[in-house]
Amino acid sequence: MAAKKQTPRVTKKPVASVKKDRGPKRAEPSPKGPVPSAKRAEPVAKVPAPEEARLEAVKPALPKKSKRPDVDTLKAMPTEELWTFYRKATRLKPLDEAWLETLRNVLMELHYPLVKHIAERLLQTLPKSIELDDLVSAGLFGLMDAIRGFDPDRGIKFKTYCTTRIRGSILDQLRSQDWVPRLVRLKASKIDKALHRLQGEYGREPTHAELAAALEMEHGELALEITSSQAKTMFSLSERWDDRDDDNSVEKVEVLVDKNAVDPIHELNRRDVMNHITRSLTYKERFIVEQYYHVGHTMREIGEMLALTESRVCQIHSNVMARLHGLLNQKSQSFHA
Predict the structure, then answer these.
(1) pTM higher than 0.85 for the full model?
(2) Residue-wise pLDDT tens digits, 316-327
(3) What are the residue ranges spanned by the domains of the chain?
């Protein structure tokens, strides 16, 4: 038998298949569920450099906090520099009320001597019943209004501006406490000025007719104006009578005259005269005279106290008066002799 020819086997090498590029493949969902967020890479959007610069320019600029001086430093500053701080504080938005109040208090402390000086000058023209502290208190309110309303851009010095406001505030306070109308005060001042002018011209006190002619007023009208201008003035009874402040000074309440009080000297003289006159009378006659003239009882009341009738008391009283008149006449004749 012929042997079969064995054909050699040819092993074909696998040829790599070439697939067309159809773009990126879609991510197939994992059969085990979504991928955890820690492992997932999130895309970061990058902003171009010009865009970053534009966003930085749009951001609001934060105000820089400058170091503010303390109160002692503010008091040592010149007034102009202090007003510069105050103007800047009033223009801040939002306003810093605490810082503004600190600057206002420092300005008030610096101008307090000016308020006291104006109050002392006005006190010299006012009655003694007006206290200096009341004027200073009213002037401080005017200073506060001047600080709030002062505008340095107008070119006016603050001292000139606040002097007018302080003086006006004090005068307004005085007018509010005065019960006399302002028109009456003005007329009284006009009369007083005319009186002093005529005294300087004539060298003497002008007459009522001369004063009325100078004021171009009638006699009755001038008399009425003078009467209405002489208003009463209030005084404190605890005020010192003199200007001394020691413990020996007398208060005004201690020197007031009490018209209802009994004069001790007159009372002693009256008792001496009564004892001298009634020493020659009996007990019943002296009792009737004392009760009638000293105590003020009526004849009927005296009769009830003595168990006598009213007519009998009148009879005894008449006899006593006749005897006393005769006694006094003898004394007076002996005195003149």
Answers:
(1) no
(2) 999 988 888 887
(3) 71-177, 182-229, 264-336
